Structures are given as C-alpha cells and as structure tokens.
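Supplementary Methods. Inverse-folding protocol.

Structures were first reduced to a discrete structure-token string of length 442. This string, shown here, constituted the complete conditioning input.
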C-alpha cells in the first residue's frame, strides 16, 4: 500500500461500509481475563442466538480487547447505547439478546456493577468507573477487533505515521514529543523527547528501537492489555519512533507469560507488512523499518533495559553498569531507543492532536494520562486510565468502588515490588510522578 492508498483510505472505506451495514453491534471482551472466564464460549453461543432469531443482517458480533472492569467478566457491550453486561455466560446470553435486541429493554440484573449498586447505569459513560477516566492509550481497547488491521484504520490508524513520513522531519517529530511533555511510563519517568533526541544525535549506520513489554510486577497487566487490545497502536508508535531517531530495525520484547499478547502482536506485524506499513519504503517513502518479536523467559530482572538488551542478544539477562547508556551503546553496541508499551501507545495521538493538546492534560510537571491496574481487595478491580494528578482517593473509591465488604482502606502498593506503599493518611496524594517520588512510592 502506498500513501495514496492510505490517503484515500481504500482499506478503511471497506471497513467503514461493513461498520455501517449493521444497526447493532455487540462487543465481547476477549482479553486474557475474560477469556479465562469463558468469553470464547459466550461469543459462540451469541452467534447461535443471533442466527436463531434471524438477526444476522442486523447485528455484528465483534471480539475486542480489555474493556476495563476485569473482575466482572465475561463482559458484553451493546451499541448503540454503550450498555455493558457483566458476568455473562452461556446460560444468560440468550436472555441478553432477547431483552436488548427484541424487547428493547436493558436487562438490569446483569448490567455492569448491578450487584453493588441500587440502580446501575444503562449507559456505561455515566458510570463513575468510566466517567472519571480519560482514555488515550486505552481509547480503542474494547471497541475494535485487535486482530483486524481494517478496524484500526477506521479509527485513524497509521494516520500519524503517514503525517510524520510526508509532512515532518525527524527533528519536527522529536520537537512535538518534547512539547507534549510525555515522560516514560515504565517507571523512571524520564522525558521521552529528550531520550529520542539523544538517540537521534548519535551518528551510526545502524540504530534500533525496542519496545519493552516485559511487565513483571505482580498485579500489573497494563502493557499486556494494550498489546492484546490494540497492538497496531504500539506498532505505529514504534515506527514513528524509528523514523525520528533514524532506526531501521525494531524488537518487541514481550514476556512469555503473555501468549495472547504475543500472538496478536505478531499478527499485527504480518498485517502491517502485507499492507506496506512495515518493511522497505513504507507507504512509498524513503523510510524502511521492520519489527520482530523476542519472547522473554520469565526473568523479572529483564524488565531493566540493559538486562533486556542482553537477553535479546542471546546472553544471560544481567544488568550492566551505566554509562554508556543504551542511547549511545545499546543493542549489539549500537544506539538504541527503549520505550515501554504504554509510552509507545501514546505517540500516535500526540502526533495526530499535537504536543500542546497532550501537555494540557495532567499536571504542570506530569502531563498526559496514566494507565493503572487495580488489583486486590477492591470492589471494581481492572484496568483504568486517568489524567496525571488524579488522587488516590478518586482511584480507589470513585472509580474502584471502595474496599470489599465495606472494609477500611489501609494502604496501596504502587510500582510493584520495586515501588512502595501509600498509607491511608495519604489518600489525597496525587497520582503523578512528583507526588509519588516525594513519598518514595516509585
């Protein structure tokens, strides 16, 4: 596919036609959490129920990535109306279809969080769980089929890559990322634009971009869910980063415990290659870039960038002293840019909307949003994305629904085993880099 194909959205138009031919859509979460609860069987049964009622031409069933409220799965979302049903199984999916599509009356007993509220919300947008969120990284997770590149194209997929290749210089791209004030989401919070600029300045015929998907913290599943739910967003971010720093080869290092993420990311790579969005002379430009997946073997230490590099090289994953930093001497001694999944998933929206747009979200020192995995004795566990500066109280009580059984909040652990705990007296601490660092929590 060349640029003209993308500009006229040949493939996306086909998807749009298919997108508009159905009056109703039913999205079934097929993220790892819901799959483990039986969502694959639910989807098969849903197809049967729709066929039995003669609704094949009116209803499209779409498998998606994570919708967020993971402990309520399997989740089924009906559009229009954004009505989400929880704990759906093969015994009640027929009732959902009858009530939602035939009777046109939501089934209140199965509405999201119906077991913890006097009256649940028919439109999930009105629910505090979603209302207090601001989704950028997770925007299309739960709304697109992660195994169809056409779905991604419909939602402005690869539009940012087209923009940088034909309308921006590498310096322009780096300046936009610097202007956005995006900081690395892997934990250290180093300014992404500065890191990109450092790699760009080193002169070398060979440079690399690495996506760090080795998410080893117990209870953390942010990167896994993004890779499972919107792999092309990460892939597009890698390609834009490569163009900016002058790399032509990329590696996605994904931990072996994430088989679904690996499968979907490898499929995304194949689809992008087939459409000319990876490989030689992307979209007819002078830029060439390709990506391979490397699977981690479960070593927690390989989340550290120098240990990760050693692992890709086939060595024992052991951290080495720095300097030199990977930006100067990384993979096989060449200048290397390493960003984590969430950071790379933020790149396309920044390019499409501008660095100024992103910088106005969050706090003066921590721009943008942050994805959190809520786990533990909390009512509404799952995956959320909130603006930097959102308080711990809002995360735990407004979004998370408070402590199970009405218990007392004692502490929250942030940053996994390498982080620290926030005790109850700091419930109103802002969830941003400066506040968490001051508490010693990251």
């Amino acid at each position: 596919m060349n640029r003209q194909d993308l500009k006229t959205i040949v493939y996306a138009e086909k998807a749009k036609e298919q997108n508009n031919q159905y009056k109703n859509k039913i999205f079934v979460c097929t993220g790892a959490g819901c799959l483990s609860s039986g969502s694959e069987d639910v989807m098969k049964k849903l197809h049967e129920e729709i066929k039995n009622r003669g609704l094949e031409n009116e209803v499209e069933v779409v498998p998606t990535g994570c919708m967020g409220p993971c402990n309520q799965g399997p989740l089924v979302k009906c559009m229009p109306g954004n009505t989400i049903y929880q704990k759906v199984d093969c015994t009640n999916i027929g009732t959902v279809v009858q009530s939602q599509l035939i009777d046109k009356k939501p089934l209140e007993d199965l509405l999201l969080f119906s077991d913890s509220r006097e009256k649940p919300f028919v439109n999930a947008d009105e629910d505090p769980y979603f209302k207090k969120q601001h989704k950028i990284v997770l925007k299309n997770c739960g709304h697109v089929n992660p195994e169809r590149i056409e779905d991604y194209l419909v939602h402005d997929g690869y539009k940012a890559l087209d923009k940088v290749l034909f309308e921006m210089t590498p310096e322009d791209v780096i300046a936009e990322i610097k202007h956005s004030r995006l900081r690395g989401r892997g934990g250290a919070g180093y300014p992404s634009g500065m890191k990109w600029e450092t790699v760009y300045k080193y002169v070398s015929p060979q440079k690399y971009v690495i996506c760090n998907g080795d998410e080893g913290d117990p209870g953390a599943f942010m990167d896994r869910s993004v890779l499972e739910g919107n792999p092309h967003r990460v892939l597009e971010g890698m390609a834009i980063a490569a163009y900016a720093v002058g790399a032509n080869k990329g590696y996605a290092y994904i931990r072996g415990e994430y088989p679904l993420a690996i499968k979907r990311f490898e499929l995304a790579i194949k689809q992008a290659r087939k459409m000319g969005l990876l490989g030689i002379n992307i979209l007819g430009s002078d830029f060439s870039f390709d990506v391979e997946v490397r699977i981690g073997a479960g070593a927690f230490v390989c989340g550290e960038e120098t240990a990760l590099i050693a692992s890709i090289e086939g060595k024992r994953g052991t951290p080495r002293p720095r300097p030199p930093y990977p930006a100067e001497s990384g993979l096989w001694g060449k200048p290397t840019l390493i960003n984590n999944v969430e950071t790379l998933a933020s790149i396309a929206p920044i390019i499409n909307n501008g660095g100024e747009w992103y910088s106005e979200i969050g706090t003066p020192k921590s721009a943008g949003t942050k994805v959190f995995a809520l786990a533990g004795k909390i009512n509404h566990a799952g995956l959320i994305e909130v603006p930097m500066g959102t308080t711990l109280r809002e995360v735990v009580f407004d979004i998370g629904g408070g402590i199970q059984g009405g218990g007392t909040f004692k502490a929250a652990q942030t940053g996994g085993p390498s982080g620290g705990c926030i005790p109850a007296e700091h419930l109103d601490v802002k969830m941003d880099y400066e506040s968490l660092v001051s508490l010693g929590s990251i």
